[in-house]
Specification:
539 residues, alpha+beta
């Protein structure tokens, strides 16, 4: 097996489903219709890249509670023995500044409305992935998404739950005519669509059709850009057509650490993938063989705190960082941070390195191509704004900027914010094992660490890895755990000074997908998230 574990195929814990095994192709996503859309593209002769784009576009329709056309995207793509990274995050509007916000009476960046809206990167990312690595025309690849938007689809259980919660929240929070289009689009009957009820969006379908016909050119340079510009001007927003025209996705070199003989890969900043790598770099210095051991959880949590403290201080748009990824991921710095971990829970602080609402999907095809793809509007539906008649829910990613002058992630025009969404990828001996990811805000690097350790340290198969109880460090010494987290371990962690809180909302712990490839046989092994409507389509 690719992971060199004789017990890899066996499942040691109770689960609602088993690892999916196939050979010709596999798509893992949080919505069955999206996974099936990707599989249909594979069966039409497309490759894993085409399948990932198809699933991603379909997810903007069938899971709008987590992502949309107006959001950002990142991808790690394995093609012909090489891993490529694509940063599809948008910049802030050129006219946006701390000074301007203070003039408008803001002491912090608003969560909703036009102020936190940044340039949507997802459509450009789809087009760029298709241009460089796709086999089928974008028109064919986006066809399933267009069909679901046009004809409608029935609401699935977890989707319905989150949609209803968002609609109720927005009724109380979103005041102003600029938000009317959100309610017209996503709550046309004065409420969210019920589970099993069919929902459609003709405007969403037409926008996807225009993106498909022009390879996203109309989104950044044409008719759609004009519509976004006009909507923003009408309500005093900052984003302009010129901001859209100046956007382009960026190909980047993925970053990695060696973790017990495996290379764990992430997108470099402005994403927070480096936080996961920093934590793993610290943890590899410990001998952690028992999964359900108090010491294992304690050290994981402490390493995570230290990594986040550094991430929040040093990570931003890479053009503004004064600490390099090599500095943060050096063995010397990992040893320094590791030495701070004691037997008791700490209050985390950043060190001094030596200077030198989200969806995740995975796709693989029979030719060895593999894609780790993530896409988000942030905080569910994003800004609460929908461009009239288009179905485009604009993201609120700018909310992550700081208004602190001089901070590396301080607000400025034409700048990318600290970004929560991160795709992951695993290799060994320069051979691909596969894509993985756990979506969910600041849970994401914590989910990545838990996935990697469940796989490498504790020999769990993909489904076991995802179904295993999760924890999330929140702030200071507070850690949330799932209801099925071992009670005796939670009590022991309390005695070490952790403030353990059982969180009943499973959505707080992220939603993941995994596809591993046995590089000796070509067989694919997939796991999907039991905390959502996730599924794997394969053949």
């Amino acid at each position: 097996m690719a992971l060199n574990h004789l017990d890899y195929l066996y499942y040691p814990y109770e689960t609602t489903r088993q690892t999916t095994i196939a050979r010709n192709g596999m798509v893992a996503a949080s919505q069955p219709l999206a996974a099936q859309a990707g599989l249909s593209i594979l069966q039409q002769g497309g490759n894993a890249i085409d399948a990932a784009i198809a699933a991603a576009a379909t997810l903007t329709v069938v899971e709008p509670t987590s992502n949309g056309i107006g959001g950002d995207a990142f991808a790690l793509v394995w093609v012909k023995d090489k891993l490529y990274g694509l940063n599809g995050s948008g910049h802030s509007p050129a006219s946006l500044s701390i000074e301007e916000l203070k003039k408008r009476g803001h002491s912090e960046i608003p969560t909703y409305g036009f102020t936190p809206v940044t340039v949507p990167g997802a459509p450009g990312a789809w087009a760029e992935l298709s241009r460089r690595f796709g086999k089928l025309p974008l028109k064919d690849v986006l066809a399933p998404a267009i069909q679901y938007a046009e004809e409608g689809f029935p609401i699935s259980p977890v989707l319905g739950k989150f949609w209803s919660a968002a609609a109720e929240k927005f009724k109380h929070l979103l005041k102003g005519d600029e938000f009317n289009h959100w309610f017209e689009t996503f709550a046309p009957e004065g409420r969210a669509p019920a589970i099993g009820e069919v929902w459609s969006s003709k405007g969403h379908a037409e926008t996807l059709r225009k993106i498909a016909d022009t390879n996203a050119e109309t989104f950044y340079h044409g008719e759609i850009a004009d519509e976004i510009d006009n909507f923003s001007k009408e309500y005093g927003g900052f984003i302009r057509k010129s901001d859209l025209e100046n956007y382009h996705p960026e190909w980047v070199d993925p970053i990695s650490v060696d973790y017990r003989g495996y290379d764990v890969w992430e997108i470099p900043p402005n994403g927070q993938g480096i936080v996961a790598l920093s934590a793993l770099n610290i943890l590899k210095g410990f001998d952690l063989k028992e999964k359900e051991a108090v010491d294992t959880y304690h050290k994981q949590m402490e390493a995570m705190k230290l990594a986040f403290a550094d991430g929040h201080k040093f990570v931003a748009d890479d053009a503004y960082m004064d600490v390099s990824c090599d500095d943060l991921l050096s063995e010397e710095y990992a040893e320094l941070r590791r030495s701070l971990i004691t037997d008791q829970a700490m209050q985390p602080e950043a060190g001094t390195p030596p200077k030198g609402g989200t969806v995740y999907l995975a796709a693989a095809d029979k030719d060895g191509n593999m894609v780790s793809f993530i896409q988000s509007n942030y905080m569910g539906f994003g800004s609460g704004l929908v461009v009239p008649g288009t179905g485009i829910a604009l993201q609120n990613r700018g909310h992550n900027f700081s208004l602190e002058e001089g901070h590396v992630n301080s607000l400025a025009g034409n700048k990318r914010s600290y970004h929560t969404i991160i795709p992951g990828f695993l290799t060994k001996d320069n051979k691909p094992i596969g894509p993985f990811g756990v979506m969910g805000g600041f849970m994401q690097p914590q989910g990545h660490v838990q996935v990697v350790m469940n796989t490498i340290d504790f020999h769990l198969n993909p489904q076991a890895t995802l179904d295993s109880p999760r924890w999330q460090w929140m702030k200071d010494r507070t850690v949330w755990v799932e209801p099925n987290f071992p009670a005796h371990v939670a009590e022991a962690l309390k005695r070490k000074g952790h403030h353990i809180e059982v969180q009943l909302e499973t959505g707080a712990f992220g939603r993941g997908q995994i596809i591993w490839r046995d590089y000796e046989t070509g067989t694919l092994y997939g796991g999907t998230e039991s905390r959502t409507d996730g599924t794997i389509s394969a053949y």
